Amino acid sequence: MARYQDVPGLTVALGGKAAIGHTPAPDADYQALVTDVQIGFAVLTAARTVTLPDVDLYPIGQVLFIADESGQCSVDRPITVTTGAGTNDTIAGQVAIQITDAYQGLGFRRGAANVWIIAR
């Protein structure tokens, strides 16, 4: 099976467009980067926090997906997604949202200035 990197010209054609990628999150809190597309927690031994980058710097049209890949996420061991300090951003009007179910994930898209939209 061919990988997307093996398709001639595809990387150039996608330049500045939707990105493909996966960031394995450490078993620790994580600061999301504007280059992240999918962040997955394969190991989750405690509650964790993912801090979103400044929404106004994130690529328009790109979804940032954050997920529990460990099967260990729960109400007692959530993944909290929060906005960055000093950004004045909100997530659908809130400063944080939690993922509380095993193998659950949420998508986030850039909305208006200072607004992350939850993409379901």
What attributes characterize this protein structure?
six-stranded mixed beta sheet, 120 residues, Jelly Rolls
Description:
The strands form two sheets. A six-stranded mixed β-sheet has the order 1-3-5-9-10-7, with no helix packed on it. It has a four-stranded mixed β-sheet with strand order 2-4-6-8, with no helix packed on it. The chain has one domain: Jelly Rolls (Sandwich). The model has no long low-confidence stretch (mean pLDDT 90). The chain contains one helix and ten strands. A hairpin with a 4-residue loop joins strand 9 and strand 10. By secondary structure, the chain is mostly beta strands.
What is the name of the CATH class?
A: Mainly Beta
Largest sheet: 6 strands, mixed
Major sheet: order of its strands? 1-3-5-9-10-7
The CATH topology corresponds to Jelly Rolls
How many H/I helices? 1
